[in-house]
Design goal:
The complex is a heterodimer of chains A (about 280) and B (about 260). In chain A, about 80% of the residues lie in helices and about 0% in strands. Chain A has about 280 residues and is mostly helical. Chain A has a domain at about 15-200: ABC transporter involved in vitamin B12 uptake, BtuC. In chain A, α3 (about 40-60) packs across α4. The mean pLDDT of chain A is about 85. The model of chain B is unreliable at about 245-264 (pLDDT under 50). Chain B has a domain at about 75-140. Chain B has a 6-stranded mixed beta sheet, with helices on both faces. Helix content of chain B is about 25%, strand content about 25%. Chain B has about 260 residues and is of the alpha/beta class. Classes of the chains: A mainly alpha (about 280), B alpha/beta (about 260). At the A-B interface, α7, α8 and α11 of A face β5 of B.
C-alpha cells in the first residue's frame, strides 16, 4: 500500500480519521455538560442499553443507530419517570437500568446466532471498519445535533448552574432537559461507532476533564474539549495503525494520557505560583 | 388590603415523601415590606420559599401572586461545580443579557465593583453572597426572595448584607422575603417575622433593642442598629418528632389554631 492509497478517500484510514474527528466534534460540547451536570453514570446507562438497541435494530431490520437512539430515549424517559418517586436514589436507579439493559442486550444477542453479529466490534468499537454510511450518520446527525445544542445552549448552562434560580428567571419554559436527554441518546448512538459501547462514556468525560484547566468560560472549555478529543482520536488511530492495537481502547488510552498531562501541567503551575 | 399583596399564601399544606412539610401556613408579603422567615432546620423554610416562587405546588391551600410579578431569587443551595468555568459577568447574565454599565452599577451597589471579570471559583464566601445578591436584584424585581443570604458570612458581613438589602428596599421599593437560620437575631428593618416549624408557630415584629447597652456592647453601635432580637411567643412546644404539645401555658397571643395536633 502506498502513501497515496492510504490518503485517498476510499482508504479506511481516512474514513477512520474523518469519523473520529466528527465524533470528537460532537462529543466535546455534549461531554462538557455530562461533566458539569455529573451525568457520567447516565452516559454509562445509555451506552449499556445500546446493545439492546443494536439487537432490536437488527431484528426489526432498521439501522442499528436508530435502534440505539430509540432505546436511549426510552431509558431517559424511564429514568425521569422513576425519579418521581423519591425512596430510591438516582444513582441506584441508574445502576438498575444500566445493568438490566446490558443483560437484556446480551440475552437478546445470544438468540441471534443465525445473524452475523460482531459483539466485540459493538462492545469496543471498530473505527477502522467505518463505512461511508456511518460517516453520513456522524456528519449528518452531528450537524443536526450540534444545531439543537446551540439552540438550547444558554438556558441549559443557566439550568446547569442552578435549576431553581434559572426557572425563577424564566429559563425553564422550553423543554430544555428533555431535549438534552434526546441529544445525549443520539450522541451515544453516534459515538459508539468509534469507541464501542463500553467506552463511550470515557470519550464523553475524559476530554472535558483534561480541558477544564485551560478554560475560563463554558464555550472555551467546549472548544478545548474538541481539540483534546480530536488529538486523542488521531493519536489513538495512529497507534492502532502502527502497533495493531484495538482502535477504541487506543483512543481512550490516548485521551487518558492527555488528561494525565493536563493534571501534571496543573501541578507544575500551582507549584510555581505557590513559590511566588 | 389583599389586592395589594405581592404574594399571599393561604392555609398552604405540602406533603413530600410521606412527611408533612408545611401544615396550614399563611403568609403575606406587600410592596416595600421586609418579611423574615425563621425556624429550625427542617422546618420547611425553603419549601415555603419554593411554594412562593412557584417551584413547588401546594397539596392544599392557595397561592396568589400579583400579576406580572417579577421575582429576584437568591438560592441557598447554589453551589457551583468546580468543573464549570464561569466569570462573575457570565454568572450575572446567564438568562438575560444586560448592559455592562448596569452590571458594574449593580456590583457597586452590593459593594464589590471590582469583581466583574473575576472567576467565580476564586471568590470568598462573602463576595460570593454579594454576587448572588447582585444577580437577584439585577432585573429590578418587585419581590426579592433571599434564602439565607448571610450563610457562610460572619456577623459583620451579615450586618453589611442587611444594610444593602434595607437600602435596596428603599431604592426600588421591592418587597423582601428573607429566610434566616438565626432564630433570634434578625434584620432590624424587618416588618414582620414568621417563625415556622411546619406550621407558623408565632409571628410578630422584632423588638427594638438598638439602644440596649448589652446589645450595643455585643455587636457595636452600627451593627446594633441593623440587628434586632425577635422575641418568640409560642403557646406550645415541639417534641423531638415534631409533634406539638402544650407549652408553658402562656397566652395564645398571635392566635393560631392547631386542630390537627389534637391538643385542644
Amino acid at each position: 500500500m502506498t502513501v497515496i492509497d492510504l490518503l485517498s478517500f476510499d482508504s479506511f484510514v481516512v474514513r477512520a480519521v474523518a469519523a473520529g474527528l466528527g465524533v470528537a466534534l460532537i462529543a466535546g460540547p455534549l461531554g462538557c455538560f455530562v461533566v458539569w451536570r455529573r451525568m457520567a453514570y447516565f452516559g454509562d446507562t445509555l451506552s449499556h442499553a445500546a446493545l439492546t438497541g443494536v439487537a432490536l435494530g437488527i431484528l426489526l431490520g432498521v439501522d442499528p443507530t436508530v435502534g440505539i437512539a430509540g432505546i436511549g430515549l426510552v431509558m431517559g424517559l424511564l429514568l425521569l419517570g422513576l425519579q418521581q418517586q423519591r425512596r430510591i436514589s438516582t444513582d441506584t436507579l441508574l445502576g438498575i437500568l444500566s445493568h438490566t439493559a446490558l443483560s437484556v442486550g446480551l440475552i437478546v444477542v445470544s438468540f441471534m446466532d443465525t445473524v452475523r453479529f460482531d459483539l466485540m466490534g459493538y462492545l469496543f468499537g471498530d473505527i477502522l471498519a467505518v463505512t461511508t454510511l456511518d460517516l453520513a450518520w456522524i456528519y449528518g446527525g452531528g450537524a443536526v445535533l450540534l444545531a439543537a445544542l446551540a439552540a438550547i445552549w444558554r438556558p441549559l448552562i443557566a439550568l446547569t448552574v442552578d435549576q431553581d434560580t434559572a426557572m425563577v428567571e424564566g429559563a425553564g419554559r422550553l423543554p430544555v432537559r428533555l431535549t438534552f436527554m434526546i441529544l445525549m441518546a443520539l450522541t451515544v448512538a453516534i459515538a459508539m461507532k468509534v469507541v464501542g459501547i463500553l467506552l463511550v462514556t470515557a470519550l464523553l468525560i475524559i476530554p472535558p476533564a483534561a480541558a477544564r484547566r485551560f478554560a475560563t468560560s463554558p464555550e472555551g472549555m467546549a472548544a478545548a474539549t474538541v481539540l483534546i478529543g480530536g488529538t486523542a482520536v488521531i493519536s489513538g488511530i495512529s497507534a492502532s495503525f502502527i502497533w495493531d492495537t484495538p482502535s477504541g481502547p487506543s483512543i481512550v488510552a490516548a485521551a487518558a494520557l492527555l488528561f494525565a498531562l493536563s493534571l501534571a501541567a496543573g501541578l507544575v503551575t500551582d507549584a510555581a505560583h505557590g513559590r511566588k | 388590603m389583599i389586592g395589594l399583596s405581592l404574594i399571599e399564601i393561604r392555609d398552604g399544606s405540602l406533603t413530600r415523601g410521606g412527611r408533612r412539610i408545611l401544615d396550614g401556613v399563611s403568609i403575606d408579603i406587600r410592596p416595600g415590606q421586609i418579611v423574615t422567615l425563621v425556624g429550625p432546620n427542617g422546618a420547611g423554610k425553603s419549601a415555603l420559599v419554593k411554594v412562593a416562587l412557584g417551584l413547588e405546588i401546594l397539596d392544599r391551600g392557595e397561592v396568589r401572586r400579583a400579576p406580572n410579578l417579577r421575582i429576584g431569587y437568591q438560592s441557598q443551595r447554589l453551589v457551583l461545580d468546580q468543573t464549570l468555568p464561569l466569570s462573575v459577568r457570565r454568572f450575572l447574565t446567564l438568562t438575560h443579557s444586560q448592559p455592562v454599565t448596569l452590571l458594574q452599577q449593580t456590583l457597586a451597589d452590593v459593594g464589590v465593583p471590582h469583581l466583574l471579570d473575576t472567576g467565580i471559583h476564586t471568590l470568598s464566601g462573602g463576595e460570593w453572597q454579594r454576587v448572588m445578591l447582585a444577580r437577584a436584584i439585577l432585573r429590578r424585581p418587585d419581590l426579592l426572595v433571599l434564602d439565607e443570604p448571610t450563610q457562610n458570612v460572619d456577623i459583620m458581613g451579615a450586618v453589611e448584607i442587611y444594610q444593602i438589602v434595607a437600602r435596596l428596599r428603599d431604592d426600588i421599593g421591592c418587597g423582601v422575603l428573607m429566610v434566616s437560620h438565626d432564630l433570634n437575631v434578625v434584620m432590624a428593618a424587618t416588618d414582620q417575622v414568621y417563625c415556622l416549624n411546619g406550621h407558623i408557630c408565632c409571628s410578630g415584629h422584632p423588638a427594638d433593642v438598638s439602644r440596649d447597652r448589652e446589645f450595643q456592647r455585643l455587636f457595636g453601635p452600627a451593627a446594633a442598629a441593623t440587628l434586632a432580637i425577635y422575641p418568640h411567643n409560642h403557646d406550645h412546644t415541639h417534641a423531638p418528632d415534631g409533634s406539638v404539645g402544650h407549652g408553658d401555658g402562656r397566652g395564645h397571643e398571635h392566635g393560631h389554631e392547631h386542630h390537627d395536633h389534637g391538643h385542644h
